[in-house]
Specification:
- By secondary structure, the chain is α+β, with helices and mostly antiparallel strands.
- Helix content is 48%, strand content 16%.
- It has four helices and two strands.
- It is globular.
- The relative contact order is 0.20.
Length: 73
């Protein structure tokens, strides 16, 4: 999955309202990736069984981060 698919895929947005702890997991993974991408060109994100059934495995690139952040910067 791409970073955009990971952030907009089925079931990834609804958790923020229904499971604050899961939202924190995603935010921590995003923050870790953001920090890593300041020194690396890509970073692997792994959230196994984040909701008890689904797992997220994706590689995010610095270009992905810049593209996703552009509308809010």
């Amino acid at each position: 999955a791409t970073a955009e698919e990971a952030s907009t895929g089925p079931g990834t947005a609804a958790f923020a309202e229904t499971d604050p702890a899961l939202a924190v997991r995603f935010l921590e993974a995003a923050e870790t990736a953001k920090i890593a991408l300041s020194e690396e060109t890509e970073h692997r994100i792994s959230l196994p069984f984040y909701d008890g059934k689904r797992s997220l495995e994706t590689t995010v690139t610095r270009d992905d981060l810049e593209r996703l952040a552009a509308p809010i910067i």
